[in-house]
Write a structure and sequence with these properties.
Blueprint: H1 3-21, H2 28-40, H3 44-73, H4 80-120
């Protein structure tokens, strides 16, 4: 596997974890897919792919948990094999439904997450902060100890009435 595939898988796993944590919310695969798509980057196609993979990954533990819970309530016949067969069939059905549901909604969330990444310049950029030495002004004078006397269009001179 290449490093881009590993990165996509890592982002999909993070999105799947978010989907599982938010399972009680309606359409939680959209949330997980959105996180995965946002983390993966601004490419919309790749965001949708990673979001869909996130939904597929979340479907597996979801199907296991749902099968364990549902198997408690399943009444089976006298044979022990029939109970395992019913549990296995239930697992397959839940996995199929969960994969379709999670994959489709995760892809939609991944697309939206990629759009948000494009809009907000990704998770790694931070806004410039006042007083940050890395964001120096180009028009900085030799001595910055004295305040600048120029007024902007939004400032009023102190002590003078506004003549607008």
């Amino acid at each position: 596997m290449s490093s881009s595939d590993m990165t996509a898988l890592k982002h999909a796993a993070i999105g799947a974890a978010v989907s599982l944590v938010t399972f009680f919310l309606p359409f939680s695969p959209v949330i997980g897919g959105g996180v995965a798509g946002y983390l993966h980057g601004p490419d919309r196609t790749e965001g949708a792919k990673v979001g869909g993979l996130s939904g597929l990954l979340a479907a597996v533990p979801g199907a296991v948990i749902a099968t364990l819970i549902a198997s408690v309530f399943v009444i089976v016949g006298p044979g022990q094999r029939s109970g395992l067969l019913v549990a296995f069939a239930l697992f397959l059905v839940l996995l199929l439904v969960g994969a379709l549901y999670g994959g489709a909604l995760g892809a939609v969330g991944g697309l939206v997450g990629a759009l948000l990444n494009e809009e907000f310049d990704g998770p790694n950029s931070t806004p410039a902060r006042a007083g940050d030495p890395t964001t120096l002004r180009d028009d900085r004078s030799e001595s910055d100890d004295e305040p600048r006397s120029e007024l902007t269009e939004f400032d009023d001179a102190i002590g003078e009435p506004n003549r607008s």
